[in-house]
Amino acid sequence: MLSLTTGLAPLVLAGLLGWTGAVKVFSRGTAQQAPKTALALMLRSSERATTVLRATGAGELLIAAGLLVIPANPVPGAAAAVLGAGFLVYLGYGRTMAPESSCGCSAREDTPITWRAFARAAVVLIGGAAVAPAQDTWWSAVSERPAGALVFLAGAAAVLVALSADLDRWWLLPLRRTRLRVFGHPLLGTAAGNHQVPVAASVELLENSLAWQAAAPVVRSALLDHWEDDGWRILQYSGVYGDGENARPVAVVFALDATAGRDTGDDPVVRVSYVDADSGGAVAVDELGAVPSRKSLPMAG
Questions:
Q1: How many Cα atoms are found within 13 Å in the side-chain-facing hemisphere of 32?
Q2: Fewer CB atoms inside 10 Å of the end CB: C or N, the chain?
Q3: What is the rounded average pLDDT of the residues 101-121?
Q4: Does the pLDDT of residue 287 top 50, yes or no?
């Protein structure tokens, strides 16, 4: 097993470095992502960060090519080990100096630096150190034990995918959605069939919606009340409509799917109603300006 691992390590490292290097070099997202990285803060320039990211990607591609073509040569493995060590130093410094910034490791991750980035850098370091003294080629390992090689490569690919935050949308988010559908939300202790999410999650989803942006000039309070009605979660705020002598207090009422959350995919439909605080009557739709036209919503009983 050890010989198989050592023999196939160049192929695994080449796949990892080839993917991250190609994204850095060829993706247009590199320039967009660079300002969000810890590297931009270190260099105090988004342009310099973009240049360094692309140069690093080119180096990764070169090492990946060496691992594929001359795996028995110690140079590509040693270069990978040095690169992994450099990644670890950068991640440690970036995590300390700019904990909320991304690492830019694949030029697509926009999440803060976490243990997964360190683990992936450690894989490069350890893998490179293991490959450097090896004398076997990856193609001989595959030809001698094809079934074992297939199992090893599948497991290695699964590990690398799990260590890549920018691939979460392809496997982790669908897995979370399935868990919520089957078991309900763990914070509510719901059984299967009752999939309501916490009110705080609904508020967060609402405040990132276009309906909230349109109604925000009217809203004057934090969440005052909430309730459920026929599958909708109703969120009530107070507000002021109009200016000067024409200003009048209103209740701003939003409704969205009670099961919607950040893990449920597309943006949910949000319904909006304005209710006069004095008369209890709905404010005429044509008075709402940019706020979407929606039917009136039920008030709490």
A1: 8
A2: C
A3: 81
A4: no
